[in-house]
Amino acid sequence: MANILTACFVAVAAHGRATRADGKTPYVMHPLSVANRVSAYTNDDNVIMAAILHDVVEDTNMTVKTLRHIFNDTVADLVEELTVPKRVKRKKKYVLAKKFSPMARLIKLNDALDNLIDLDTANWPDEKKAEYRKYLDALIKKLNSV
To answer: Which residue numbers are catalytic?
Structure first.
């Protein structure tokens, strides 16, 4: 049976050499940070594994089917719930309109918080940072109000 360490290995392998918006920090540090934050609210290994893996389907070649095979239905279902389908053009509007289950909401809230904390280090123009900050503020407000 797969465990949290397996989720870490899968996330590292899937994200490879990708970096955060600062161009230096390995991308995998983000899902690990999200999982660390999530673990302050739950000791459910499935939720923590899903937090570690929350971006692998959306941002890499990993599939939900593969996650289901390696882990279990709970982990795969949570990651799938958090994944914006590639065919969705307006990602931000899609996420703002989506209804999340309680555990997916916990992961998404901590994902948004981690992105907000890292926003100042992003190598982005100020206008893009301001637009993304507005989106994150709206998302956090929505997730907290449900």
So the answer is: 58-59
